[in-house]
Structure prediction request, 465 residues.
Amino acid sequence: MEKVLHIIGGGLAGSEAAWQAAQAGIQVVLHEMRPVRKTDAHVTDGLAELVCSNSFRSDDAETNAVGLLHAELRDSESLIMGCADAHQVPAGGALAVDREGFSEAVTGKIEVHPNITIERAEVTDIPADWQHVIIATGPLTSPALSELIGKMTGSDKLAFFDAIAPIIYRDSIDMDICWHQSRYDKSGELTGEGGTGKDYINCPMDEAQYHAFLDALIESDTADFKDWEENTPYFNGCLPIEVMAARGRDTLRHGPMKPRGLTNAHNPDVKAHAVVQLRQDNALGTLFNMVGFQTKLKYGAQTDVFRLIPGLEDARFARLGGLHRNTFLNSPSLLDGELRLKNAPHIRFAGQITGVEGYVESTTIGLMAGRFAAAQIQGSAVAHPPMTSAFGALLAHITVNADAKTFQPMNVNFGLMPELEPLPAPVGDDGKRLRGKLRMQAKKQARQRAFTARARADFSSWLQA
Prediction:
């Protein structure tokens, strides 16, 4: 039997799968169609290019499920997390990266690995002599391969839209109006100049400005849908800003434009009605992206509407927003517990195409697919990560726990993990039981910490075994 592992797709999941298998001693051929065939969203030819946000989200491993996933990836010697840590930029309590430096780092490590060969060509068929395959083509799977996957699965593929937020040149932002501050002055764990509690640029709006912006946003033209996009549902975790705005006048100011935890450094006594946050997008600090402002507005409308935001009247855009189709499998009905296609077990799937949502979630599935494939090739037993861990919870959700009839993409969260034993009632420093909001907050934090403590212990035991 052929001992070579063929991985289709050089995104986050495919790169991680290739790295993990190669580190285990497996010969890997990584197939990436760019630059031979472009996609609607990619700009470069680099591996692991980030086409949406540059944020890997919260890096808090004690009270946040995403931060817990970061920790488990680091413990697993993840290539993606290692490169992300090496190219992080200030983002408060989040892990954000210089997208170009990050992609270049991943590409460089893959290119020089002695067990990995990169082939730049579109894969439109699975040759009969490919005995071990991982498909990690993600949301931008080519039409030809999508058609092949449809034939292999025997079911119609599902799809949702994913949107991209604009990026603004830092020197075009009016800092006499805007100010630097992280929400609640939260700092990250970055070294050097990062993690100051002032990692975001904030653009304030009063009530009249907010409603004028809202009217312009709702009335602006959006790009036309292609035939195959009609009647395709959005993913709620990445809704276009104009779709959110149409859901109610206060939707945005309770969502990405919420003013909570922010004080205007230029006018601290006046509370903003709404705030637009900009997050650093590169290591030089010359580019900032509009947090939560993914959009399908036409390009001309974007510049007109977004320059209504105070401080952005003269904004210059390095990239405008866009929208593309994401494709994913009904994984609970199609994949087994080792991410193999049930009716073709020599083929595995990894990454966002399996129905996980988010950079680190996709990376995690890629890591497990690579390790599972390596174990199978070497004839070793496969041990699944415990369901109490973030790794195990994600894997179980997309393979056995989710309802195939209602399956939708999912971010990692504590709700995917087995419930905890009842926790004791929280008490204050004086030993007395807390009441009201303090009690609820303490109970929530205690529950989160209990989830992560259990996960870290169980995951450590799994790694050692």
